[in-house]
Amino acid sequence: MTNQDTSPFHRLGGRTRPALLGLAALAAVFVVAAWGMQQQSETPPPAGLLDEDEELPEDIPELPADITYGERQDILPPMVSIQPETATQLQGAFATLDYDWPPNDTVPALAVRAFPPLGELSVDERKSVFFRTLLPLIVAENQIMLKTRERLGEIFAGGEIEPNSREDRLLQTVAARFRVAGDSNSTAFREELLRRVDAVPADMALAQAANESGWGQSRFTREANNLFGVWTWHEDRGLVPERRVAGATHFVRVFPDLRASVRNYLYTINVGDAYAGLRESREQGRAEGVGLSGARLAAGLHRYSERGEAYVEEIRSMIRVNDLEGLDGLQLTPVDARRLLDAADWTADLQQ
Considering the domain boundaries, does residue 4 fall inside one? Predict the structure, then answer.
């Protein structure tokens, strides 16, 4: 795992800022009353997540300088990372930033590292905090995907690519990252790469996160920042499930923070063999001008859970009940760290 800055307030991507302890709160979401808030047990084993040889590396390979997974301000503003201690504090941070639910056209570039306890919140408050916590992370990772996709399109539009040229090396680096092999001038290679480098509907991601994480309060989310029930076959990367059957060798993947879990989720959807149909449906939707629709693409999630079609319908229901449609296209806005500091007495928690 990448070493994490121990200060509670910093910018992701390696550039630290003065630290801020104690903003907090995460939230849980009440979607389907019978299921939601009572879910505290471990996530059921998924049937169609990445095979061992598809698993995201511990250290995500850096993309070339002009197609990067790092922080570039022409792609998105610096993500200000906070470590919440209580739900009330996190609600206060959202209020300071005028960040309401549902959002308007923008969301703050705020990255909550981990969920705090949410028991003190009402059902409606948990729902609001849960969505507001995860949405900026999803928007940020989707924005990187879309900018990367845009850059690939520009290269392809240039026509024939000279072998071993800068463009060829760049394309092959990106292709290796998304597990696509072939000649840079091959139509099949280009189509498959664009099929994999794309955004995931925010409504679907939020609904799955709520479902898989027990509204942010499952053991694996609390102890491992694992929002989507992701497994690993590497002992040093995971936790042993309490109810793992005899002879099983899988672990539940540990992530350094919530954003890493979101990033891994996008990778899973974009690379996993189980979701090839979803990617084809997304490609078709773009060709037809339909855009991203979580309810539509959820049809490709039948292998995400052993529950198959019942799982697909549950995700669709959660999208409908929570009015999650229409969240794509939101933009991140910079966060004024001083404004957060001045909103309350953080002096004792500010690390110089």
Answer: no
